[in-house]
Write a structure and sequence with these properties.
Shape: globular
Helix content: 40-55%
Number of strands: 10
Structural class: alpha+beta
CATH superfamily of the largest domain: Jelly Rolls
Radius of gyration: 19 Å
CATH topology of the largest domain: Jelly Rolls
Distance between the termini: 23 Å
CATH architecture of the largest domain: Sandwich
Largest sheet: 6 strands, antiparallel
CATH class of the largest domain: Mainly Beta
Number of domains: 2
Strand content: 15-25%
Order of helices and strands: EEEEEEEEEHEHHHHHHHHHH
Strand order of the largest sheet: 1-2-9-4-7-10
Number of helices: 11
Amino acid sequence: MNNIVSFKPDPSLFTYISGYFYATHQFDQSGKQFFTPKGTAAMTILLEINPSSHLIYPDKTSKIYFEKFEPYLFGQMSKIGVSNLEDRFDLFAIVFTPFGLFHFLDGPAVQMTDRVIRLDRLGLDDLHQKLRDLFKSNSEIESCLGHVNKYLIDHFNSRPSKNIPEFITSVIRQIHKEKGVVNLERMVEKLGINNRTFQLHFKNVIGISPKLFCRITRFNLLLQALDAALPTLDILDFAVQFGYTDKPHLYKDFKEFVGMTPLRYIRLINNVNAMVENEVRNKLSK
């Protein structure tokens, strides 16, 4: 059994939240899921999980075990995450916009990069308790959505006002428009700002460097196209349309973001182990 349902947040949250999704998966045996960086942060609540299941992140020596109904905040990911899952796996996720995490936290977004932590351990005890109690006492996801919207609206309204430099907004818009294939040096020069200042502001607001954000944006678009096309042609020929002009750069991104070569990934597209990842990526990109 595998199912993913996506939901839109309240319109007043569109600046901060790109969407919610509820995923269920039943494994006949232990399975591995890989999760690529998305260029956004997320909050997750495990509604059903085997105690032996765990996430290997941000490196092979780090194992994260999740407790049911406890809200966890995932910062920006810069590398692949691998989950070892057993039995049933039910998840509710709140996916931020690229700017959402910056407004969600008191400090800069970069403080959460490559980190996964419970909300109460970030000092967000009230929101943590509200979300935990809500999902612990409600089995129908649809009945929780209105409360989730309210809790998040209240949280963002309670945060100190933060101003994002206009050039950061402009750059993000351009990166998305150009599908990650941009000349950052030329862009910064046109904006008339110091490169060091640009890099610092971008990392503080988004959580990762502008160059890495471009790579992640481009790579996820490539994966979506591969999943849809199931090409039999040469992988490099296919990747050229996404700005990859040589194998080293293409293979570097595949090894860093999905932990395998392009050819192995293509063989796994229809593999059940990649199904949740593919479904989540495709639905949240619409």
